[in-house]
Design brief:
Number of helices: 9
Order of helices and strands: HEEHHHHHHHH
Low-confidence stretches: 1-32
Number of strands: 2
Largest sheet: 2 strands, antiparallel
Strand order of the largest sheet: 1-2
Number of domains: 1
Distance between the termini: 41 Å
Structural class: mainly alpha
Strand content: under 5%
Length: about 240
């Protein structure tokens, strides 16, 4: 996996751009924009799954507070300042460092996996540092994807099992109209009632799954509202 990545990293230091057209597609792939992503796209599904499996295994191996914090921050967008109390810290930058530390724990074992492929090669310190940086960036991006998916599954379960057909129809109509006219011109009373019902159930399910009270996070209410709104706007098909 990282053999291609290292070559892309080396090329990146010498060239502004390396673009290759994928055969038969007309799609131009830029191998310098994100070497790790370029590698991921070229590797087999099995190797990609193994790469992600390690990330998730290491996430599960973190203590509960670390895992909860990453999920809430990356998945729901809870403000870092809201974690000061629960992490016994006093400054926002300390929270940022703490979260970076959690990701570096995951990075350690992921790097052990990736560098096994280089037993027969000699890497420069610059190459090694670049690979580590790319791995760390990918860890955050994949954890963000996984965390959002974690909360989406909770939300879709509520929509599927606890929102009736009429309520879904009202929501569907609302979001279709939202694309065509300003929000202030819509009749929001019934829509807001349904969304509030979903928000309460969603928050309750999150607290139940993570065994944590969302009330300790000042931004949780707004974050949950924004998350639900974003999910509906991006996937109205769930309301059909």
């Amino acid at each position: 996996m990282l053999a291609v990545c290292v070559q892309a990293v080396r090329n990146k230091t010498n060239l502004k751009s390396i673009s290759i057209e994928e055969p038969g597609t007309g799609t131009i792939v830029d191998f310098t924009s994100n070497p790790l992503e370029s590698v991921v796209k070229q590797e087999t599904n099995n190797e990609l799954m193994e790469f992600r499996k390690i990330i998730l295994q290491e996430l599960e191996a973190l203590d509960n507070l670390a895992k909860q914090s990453l999920l809430l921050w990356l998945g729901l967008g809870i403000n870092q300042e809201d974690f000061l109390g629960i992490l016994n810290l006093s400054k926002q930058y300390q929270v940022a460092r703490k979260f970076q530390g959690y990701q570096k724990i995951i990075l350690k074992n992921l790097s052990q996996f990736t560098f096994k492929k280089y037993k027969q090669q000699t890497l420069s310190e610059k190459d090694i540092n670049q690979i580590i940086d790319n791995n760390l960036s990918y860890i955050k991006e994949y954890l963000k994807f996984y965390s959002r998916e974690f909360f989406e599954e909770i939300l879709w379960e509520i929509i599927t099992k606890e929102v009736d057909r009429q309520e879904k129809s009202i929501l569907k109509h609302h979001f279709e109209e939202l694309k065509a006219m300003p929000k202030e011109k819509l009749n929001l009373d019934e829509t807001d009632r349904i969304k509030q019902k979903i928000k309460v159930r969603f928050a309750g399910k999150i607290e139940q799954k993570l065994q944590i009270s969302l009330s300790i996070f000042k931004s949780s209410n707004e974050s949950i509202e924004n998350f639900i709104e974003m999910c509906f706007q991006e996937n109205t098909a769930i309301l059909y």
